[in-house]
Design a protein that fits this description.
30% helix, twelve-stranded mixed β-sheet, alpha/beta
């Protein structure tokens, strides 16, 4: 098993397949003049599959594909199929902005994908464009609807909450969950923006969102028997219609129950989203190193994981890589 020095068992691997994206959310990327990795620097599907097999041999059973925007990576469904064929993989998910989802939902489903998260911070087209700095709201809504028709259930919606910007979107998103059957996930604004403009004062805290939804729609109650390793704390409305999750990475860090580590698109292992150190695995994959050496590198990286991200301390240092480069 992959166990760090604090006894946390790691079974969850997040793999970024690209740093490219077709929108420019301010909390993730610069608005313009983004310098993307050379495509030759990205891991191939075969390299990703080999790394995943080694990780699964060490106890990993959940994989999530991220970006950038993973659906801009050509033939992503082929990678999904390759990963689904690895014995021991119990769960594969994709996090997407939904722009291309309507075009790809069916082939992703046919490849074996069953878990889907769509990033959507606002139901106002104008607010959507302010946040993403691009058009595409209608395509995201269409993509969600197509995914539901294909069979994805539930489709989870990730909404980053920012004070002074998205308060007016909370109630509409709560109603959206009740009316469509999607599961909402409100995520506290984290310091991973490309412009280094994050301030704690801009964080719209989970308890405030709960209060807004409870007062504006109806009371929320915690869902019983929750997964202790899940990043989201889940609630349901009092009438049982509409499930809402809260990822309170700033106000209520879940570091001590974290079970995940990451592989970046250019082949670096990161044992934490906020890690300041990386392990170069691409050179090992392309340099003829055996699986045993790759396994040792994974074990050593996880073993070196720190206690927590320290966002709430004076010791916190924001990583050089913004979110789109790390993998969401």
């Amino acid at each position: 098993m992959l166990v760090d020095s604090f006894g946390r068992v790691h079974t969850n691997l997040r793999i970024s397949v690209t740093d490219r994206c077709n929108i420019r959310c301010f909390y993730c990327m610069p608005a313009d003049n983004v310098v993307f990795m050379n495509r030759r620097e990205l891991l191939t599907f075969e390299e990703i599959e080999r790394f995943a097999r080694v990780a699964v041999s060490l106890g990993v059973n959940k994989i999530r594909l991220t970006g950038g925007e993973p659906l801009v990576r050509r033939e992503l469904h082929r990678l999904v199929r390759m990963l689904c064929d690895i014995p021991g993989v119990l769960d594969i998910g994709v996090t997407t902005n939904g722009i291309l989802l309507g075009e790809q939902a069916q082939e992703l489903w046919d490849a074996g994908l069953r878990r889907l998260n769509v990033s959507l911070d606002a139901l106002s087209p104008e607010k959507f464009r302010e946040i993403t700095r691009r058009d595409g709201f209608e395509k995201v809504i269409e993509g969600i609807q197509v995914a539901q028709r294909v069979g994805f259930d539930p489709v989870k919606i990730n909404a980053v909450s920012v004070r002074g910007l998205t308060e007016d979107e909370i109630i509409p998103l709560g109603r959206f969950a009740r009316e469509t059957g999607v599961e909402m996930r409100f995520i506290e604004f984290m310091p991973l923006d490309a412009d280094n403009a994050w301030e704690r004062e801009k964080v719209l805290f989970a308890h405030e969102i709960i209060e807004t939804l409870s007062n504006g729609i109806m009371p929320l109650a915690p869902v019983p028997d929750q997964n202790p390793h899940a990043p989201a704390t889940e609630f349901e409305f009092a009438d049982g219609v509409g499930r809402i999750g809260f990822i309170a990475s700033v106000s209520q860090p879940f570091c001590m129950s974290c079970d995940r580590f990451r592989l970046t698109a250019d082949g670096k292992i990161r044992n934490c989203l906020f890690s300041l150190e990386e392990t170069d695995i691409k050179s090992m994959l392309r340099g003829g190193e055996p699986d045993e050496a790759i396994a040792r590198a994974i074990v050593e990286s996880v073993s070196a994981k720190k206690e927590g991200h320290e966002i709430n301390t004076a010791r916190f240092i924001q990583p050089d890589r913004p979110m789109y480069s790390i993998g969401g």
